[in-house]
From TrEMBL:
Entry's EC annotation: 6.3.4.2
Coiled coil (residue ranges): none
Name of the protein described by the UniProt record: CTP synthase PyrG, CTP synthase
Classification via Gene3D superfamilies: 3.40.50.880
Gene Ontology CC terms, in alphabetical order: cytosol
GO terms of biological process kind: CTP biosynthetic process; pyrimidine nucleobase biosynthetic process
Classification via InterPro entries: Class_I_gatase-like, CTP_synthase
Recorded GO MF terms: CTP synthase activity; identical protein binding
SUPFAM superfamilies: Class I glutamine amidotransferase-like
PANTHER family: CTP SYNTHASE (PTHR11550), CTP SYNTHASE-RELATED (PTHR11550:SF0)
Protein keywords: Ligase
Source organism: Berkelbacteria bacterium GW2011_GWE1_39_12
Superkingdom in the source lineage: Bacteria
Length: 63
């Protein structure tokens, strides 16, 4: 379970970047769900926009 505030790196040229106006934010979490990175390339190739990730790029935070 992810609980509490976690850093998030905003990807340039996304609606999220325009909305936040910052490159790094902190978002509060309280959930047990995660994006399955096994599908990351497949979904982004089909048009899914990943707008925010963990600072190490391992976790998708915003789509």
């Amino acid at each position: 379970m992810r609980l509490g505030a976690y850093p998030c790196k905003i990807i340039d040229n996304t609606k999220t970047a325009k909305a936040y106006g910052e490159k790094n934010i902190s978002e509060r979490h309280r959930h047990r769900y995660e994006f399955n990175n096994e599908y990351r390339d497949l979904l982004t190739d089909k048009g899914l926009v990943i707008a925010g990730t963990s600072p190490d790029d391992l976790l998708v935070e915003i789509i």
